[in-house]
Amino acid sequence: APLRIAVASNFYPTLQTLVAEYPFPVVLSHASSGKLYAQIKQGAPFELFLSADMQKPRKLVELGLAEPSSLAIYARGQLALFAPGIERLTSLQQVFTAQQSPTIAIANPRFAPYGAAAQSFLFKHASKKSDMYKLVMAENVSQALLYVASGNADAGLVAYSQLIDKTDIPSSQFMLLPETDYPAIEQGIVILKNENTEKGKQFYRFIFSAATQSRLTKLGYLIPESSP
Amino acid sequence: MLDIDICVRQGRFQLNIQTCIADTGITAIYGPSGCGKTTLLRAIAGLMPIQTGSIQFRQVCWHGQRDSMPVHRRRLGYVFQENSLLRHLNVAQNLAFAQQRQPQLDTGYQQELIELLGLQELLKRYPTELSLGEQQRVAIACALLSKPQLLLMDEPLASLDSERKQRILQHLKHRSENFNLPILYVSHHLGEIATLADHLLIIEDGALIKQGPVNTVINAMAKPALITVED
Amino acid sequence: MLDIDICVRQGRFQLNIQTCIADTGITAIYGPSGCGKTTLLRAIAGLMPIQTGSIQFRQVCWHGQRDSMPVHRRRLGYVFQENSLLRHLNVAQNLAFAQQRQPQLDTGYQQELIELLGLQELLKRYPTELSLGEQQRVAIACALLSKPQLLLMDEPLASLDSERKQRILQHLKHRSENFNLPILYVSHHLGEIATLADHLLIIEDGALIKQGPVNTVINAMAKPALITVED
Amino acid sequence: MTLTTADMDAIWLTIKLASIVTLILLMIATPLALWLAFTRSHLRVWVSSFVALPLVLPPTVLGFYLLIGMGPEGPLGQLTQTLGIGLLPFTFAGLVIASLFYSLPFVVQPIQQAFEQVGQRPLEVAAIMGASPMKRFISVLLPLSMRGFLSAAILGFAHTVGEFGVILMIGGNIPSETRVLSIHIYDQVEMLNYAQAHSLSALLLLFSFFVLLIVYSMQPVRLTGGARA
Amino acid sequence: MTLTTADMDAIWLTIKLASIVTLILLMIATPLALWLAFTRSHLRVWVSSFVALPLVLPPTVLGFYLLIGMGPEGPLGQLTQTLGIGLLPFTFAGLVIASLFYSLPFVVQPIQQAFEQVGQRPLEVAAIMGASPMKRFISVLLPLSMRGFLSAAILGFAHTVGEFGVILMIGGNIPSETRVLSIHIYDQVEMLNYAQAHSLSALLLLFSFFVLLIVYSMQPVRLTGGARA
Ligand SMILES: Nc1ncnc2c1ncn2[C@@H]1O[C@H](COP(=O)(O)OP(=O)(O)OP(=O)(O)O)[C@@H](O)[C@H]1O
Ligand SMILES: Nc1ncnc2c1ncn2[C@@H]1O[C@H](COP(=O)(O)OP(=O)(O)OP(=O)(O)O)[C@@H](O)[C@H]1O
Ligand code: MOO
Ligand SMILES: [Mg+2]
Ligand SMILES: [Mg+2]
Question: What does this protein do (chains D, E) (predicted)?
């Protein structure tokens, strides 16, 4: 049977690229981290869980559903500002000067880690009061990007990995935000207690291999300081 | 005068009638089952698509080459052969609905009809809670109350007992004479026709085959057996 | 014998009948509109909830204290006062449906009825494409074809012309005599009853008020006017 | 359980949305159903199919297209901008419009079915009695189709309350404006606040059950179910 | 456009799911609608309300509860485990069961409405002619309710094709097993493959429109619409 991996939506495209070089058959199921967590709790047949945060993998360990020793950060997400209407984007302030009370899209800060990061960045660099801008919350970063791409939002705080290397999005339309301005987006992985654990461990090692980790940096992620 | 010159099709059946009907008194329509009596009444009422032809009532064009007067403007009363009532209204509401053309209910005449037709007990009932004869009586009351200029009746007394039938026939005759109300009356009952009608139309297979004062037509009928058998 | 002893309620109307009806020949049921004739037939057929009482036909219990024979087992024919046909089947299919109790179609008798009732042209038509008289004729054919042991007819000839009526009445009489088929026949037409029926039941206001051989009852009737007016 | 202000906001918004959408839908669906029920035009089949189409599109996909259609480059968006209304996504008005598309087929079908079953005769009777087309429609066709309108209103209202994918897509999850109860409960699930999600769901179920009970109890007399009908 | 294997898998899975669900739903809904249409029990109102309930729950929330109910600790899960079937979530069978809940009200309503409109008379006529209850049901009630069954089948099928939230929750997005077309299209949107999403949606729409056209064209003769009915 192929290896079954549950992956948070924001990491799904990246993981697909990685899996292309993995020699064994792998089946990826993606959804928001919260949904995957609920599914795993109810016995979903996954061997590995790549979450968008640390909280959910940790909880699974506490519930005895995952190998405690396998809990680790596999990547750190980076936040980017995407504002296609602005020429030569260099700071968030341009969004406010270009338009009065612009619509800004972020992922839902209450459960999407990118959303939480985006919100704290906004609070720091703009204002908590929403009369300066109109905040719209998407279910996840892909949807936040869609809000901007369809022109319904003027700017969005999304994942850098979504924008990097995209042929149809010129690099002048987005900018990487300094890592120090928002809480780290630590994405956690665990091996789930399942019959196929051996295959899971193999893929787990693949993720943390030096080659994969260095590819991650090219795909828009930061890599953890220490790997297991 | 009611001038009719119409051709109506219904499946393979075809009705071709060209005639003038008196606009006074009662005109009976007689003919075997399936000959087109109901179709004729429906065409006059404006409920059938007319292929070609025209209908004029008292100089007013009801149906012509170019346009057709909508049914609700024709000032007709029509007792259908079946289901003449609105099933979501009770008897009293049906009677009221029938009088919508008048500015206010004609309570005097309504009371008279309620007695004549024996509807007193039925006013609160819905059509589905009535016997067929009761439904017919209510339908007659509705048709008369709607103050029509022309009354079409398709075997309205088929399910009524003789005693009541006589009283209703008397009333119809009286009403027709005194209120200048022409009535087209379909019946299979030559006895009934003989006592009631002034004129008689005989239809067969979609065509008018005889017409005239009732006695003349009945006497001239080819098959006198029809009358004697029944009466 | 058809032994009936029933009490049926319908709204405020109550039918109380206790009688024995001969299981030979034709029994006419007569009474003013709304007296309960249809209700009686429906109760016999098993289509009405019976409050208390029993019905026995030829020693077989159709309705008793404890149980009731389902309608489809009673081997009845019933010509309803209206809508006796299945509207999703054409005439030929209705005739075939009526013969489901037989192992195979009785084409001989079916052909005879088609001629008698003039249905030849109508076989492919659906009930909504028939005139009312045509519908009644088809319903009579269905009822006769279903090989009933008891035939219930609720004013089956109300919309038919006299000539055809006579032929149908003759056939019913003949069928009843030769096939040991009792017929309960509701009619408002005393003339028709006099020529056709052997027995007569008179109902008024939900109660049986007279019963006996047809001539005896008619002669003894309190209001002879009823007969003379019409005949 | 305790209801937070956010809970109350979401509940109120949901009731408001579903009521407005149901009302508008009944008004749109009635003439449409009327036409579909009585026309002999061969366009009937095409229009019927077209009305049923939103059904097969997954809500999120429908939402995706509505988002694009209502956006600055979309036809609807250009229209609303020309009219000076601005853009509809992330507004309550946008939710209303999206829900109209989404729930239309559920409202048209039962009404059309009811109209078809009424038949011509009652309308003929009323016309003969002097009722104009308008009066026939109001005092004959409508009351005789009550059962269908009831079904339509229930399906339309409930479907809008339960709507999720479309709103998730074009709503933007803005408190008091577009965060309806379905989204709000979903948020609780995603945040792993299962207890709050349970409470809110139970509340929603109880409330809906109660509403349904009332509506079904006041169902009009069955006009055609009588033994002799 | 070119269809990948993944596309084909999703399409085939969707057609399979919707067909199976529609068939089963018609079989479940028919006796239920029969009872609802003809019973005089006061339970009627309660059962009606209960059947309509899944409507108001947001699909993902319904999915969440189905997930728990079918899980190892849920009542349904315990049942399936005792029966040796194993657990249903993340399997095709699980999708079928979930869709049944989700689409039931849309199938029951039109059939019930149709049954109610048939009335007693045709059944009486058939009984008199010797038809047993079974025969009356099959050769009288069913054909006279065809219009309702048609509506029911269309709504049920389409609603299942368009289903998203429930399946996302209990399906687990597993290729060839639970990744139906709605999920697959949404994935394309999520992955920003808008072009592929457009193509697939267009395909879905065209296919559905075509199916609807055919179904509506073969609609049975209107049995009650005749001028004299
Ligand atoms: N559903 C009902 N609710 C209340 N009363 C009813 C209901 N159905 C019938 N009735 C009443 O029962 C009585 C008997 O009705 P039935 O149909 O048996 O009369 P009938 O003798 O057949 O009359 P007709 O000659 O007019 O057909 C009538 O007075 C009628 O008004
Ligand atoms: N929809 C239809 N399609 C085809 N033929 C029809 C349709 N409706 C009626 N007919 C035929 O038209 C003819 C005339 O019908 P109509 O109802 O006018 O007869 P009628 O004279 O009123 O008969 P009856 O005395 O039985 O009521 C009949 O032969 C009937 O079979
Ligand atoms: O994939 Mo997430 O959990 O929407 O950031
Ligand atoms: Mg006629
Ligand atoms: Mg009767």
Answer: Part of the binding-protein-dependent transport system for molybdenum; probably responsible for the translocation of the substrate across the membrane.
Strands B76-79 and B2-10, how do they pair? Answer: unpaired
Question: CA of B180 to nearest chain E CA: how many angstroms apart?
Answer: 30
C220 within ligand 2 shell (Cβ under 6 A): no
The predicted-structure confidence for D113-125, as pLDDT tens digits, reads as follows: 889 888 889 999 9
Domain E5-217 has CATH 1.10.3720.10: yes
User: What is the ipTM metric for this complex?
Assistant: 0.84
- B115 touches D at CB < 8 Å: no
The answer to whether the beta carbons of residues C85 and C135 sit under 8 Å apart is yes
Nearest CA-CA partner of B137 in B104, B108, B171: B171
Q: How far apart are CA D190 and CA D158, in angstroms?
A: 23
d(CA B56, CA B167): 32
Interface residues of chain A, partner chain D, Cβ below 8 Å = 32, 34-35, 37-38, 56, 59, 103, 105, 108, 110-111, 134-139, 143, 146-147, 150-153
* Number of residues assigned to chain D: 229
Asked if the Cβ–Cβ distance from B128 to D226 is below 8 Å, we say: yes
Could you tell me if B40 lies within 8 Å of chain E, comparing CB atoms? no
The count of other CB atoms within 10 Å of the CB of residue A132 is 15
pLDDT tens-digit map of B41-96: 999 999 999 999 999 999 999 999 888 999 999 999 999 998 899 999 999 999 99
Q: Nearest C-alpha to atom 25 of ligand 2 is from which residue?
A: B33
Ligand 1 test: best mutation among C8, C12, C30, C37, most atoms within 8 Å of CB? C37
**C-beta of residue B192 within 8 angstroms of C-beta of residue B169:** yes
Quote the CA–CA distance of B86 and B135 in Å, as a whole number: 11
| Rounded Cα–Cα distance for residues C62 and C122 (Å) | 36
D121 touches chain B (CB under 8 A): yes
Residue with tokens 């979930």: E98
Cα gap E195→E181, rounded to integer Å = 15
Helix (H, G, I), strand (E, B) or coil at E42: coil
Give dist(CA C157, CA C192) in Å, integer.
10
Kindly write down the DSSP assignment for every residue of A140-189, as one continuous string: SHHHHHHHHHTTSSSEEEEEHHHHTT-TTS-GGGEEEPPGGGS--EEEEE
Binding site membership of C212 for ligand 1 (Cβ less than 6 Å):
no
b/e map of E153-184 (b: 16 or more CB within 10 Å)? Answer: bbbbbbbbbbbbbbbbbbbbbbbebbbbbbbb
Ranges in chain B, pLDDT < 50:
224-231
Q: Residue ranges of the alpha helices (H) in E53-193?
A: 59-70, 75-82, 92-118, 121-128, 133-136, 142-144, 146-161, 165-171, 181-190
Partner D contacted by C48 (CB < 8 A)? yes
Domain boundaries, chain D: 5-217
Q: Which residues of C115-145 are buried (b: 16+ CB within 10 A; e: fewer)?
A: ebbbbeebeebbbbbbbbbbbbbbbbbbbbb
